[in-house]
Write a structure and sequence with these properties.
Number of helices: 8
Number of strands: 6
Strand order of the largest sheet: 3-2-1-4-5-6
Helix content: 40-55%
Distance between the termini: 7 Å
Order of helices and strands: EHHHHEHEHEHEEH
Structural class: alpha/beta
């Protein structure tokens, strides 16, 4: 394999643990108070598209502006104070760099959220490309658009890219893009469908070993 594309939320940082709590307890009840939404329906989506989805499926009780403000406020706290970096990430990126394997951070989050993570954890310049779903004129995960775009940006065919993803929508998107998919199992997502993945790992050490084996 010639390149590795890392999702951010739930992979590079354990932010999904906190996003699940905030969405379940605060944001979703305010947005669709009469609906019992399975968070797996929207995991991996760009948060602006989450609003469109909730409004179309259930009818939103708050405005888009209020919804965006709630997410932005939660994001600042999660990324600057609460989330922690994947154990061993700096060493993994250094090993891939030594092997000449290009890497990309590929996220549904907007660039200002991504910047909070890269600045806080000294990751600026650690990836060959940083791609947000906001960069593309295409559909959000589970559509393959963001991974197809990232592969093109990094100059490697999608079928020669490894994607590390944690959410059901992200795993499906990476598989539909034709990449080799490593599913990172985290508690926040519970027993989701990971069957489209080529490999499933459940710890930072196992993730590192799997990626380095595939990237030989």
């Amino acid at each position: 394999m010639a390149a590795v594309l890392f999702d951010m939320d739930g992979v590079l940082v354990n932010s999904e643990d906190y996003w699940v709590d905030v969405e379940r307890a605060e944001i979703f009840p305010a947005t669709v108070p009469d609906a019992d939404v399975d968070l797996a329906e929207t995991s991996g989506m760009n948060f602006r598209e989450i609003y469109d989805y909730l409004d179309a499926e259930y009818g939103a009780a708050i405005s888009r502006e209020e919804f965006v403000q709630r997410f932005d406020e939660a994001a600042e706290e999660i990324y600057t104070e609460r989330a922690e970096l994947l154990d061993g990430l700096h060493d993994l990126l250094a090993e891939l760099d030594d092997r000449g394997v290009p890497t990309a951070l590929v996220s549904s989050s907007p660039h200002d959220w991504i910047d909070m993570v890269t600045e806080r954890f000294d990751l600026e310049g650690s990836f060959d490309r940083v791609v947000s779903a906001d960069d593309i004129d295409g559909a959000s995960k589970p559509a393959p658009d963001v991974f197809a775009y990232a592969a093109d940006e990094i100059g490697v065919p999608a079928d020669e890219c490894i994607v590390v993803e944690d959410s059901a929508n992200g795993i499906e998107a990476a598989a539909r893009a034709g990449t080799v998919v490593v599913a990172y199992r985290i508690d926040a997502h519970g027993d989701i469908d990971r069957s489209p993945a080529d490999e499933i790992v459940d710890s930072p050490a196992a993730l590192r070993d799997c990626v380095l084996e595939l990237a030989r």
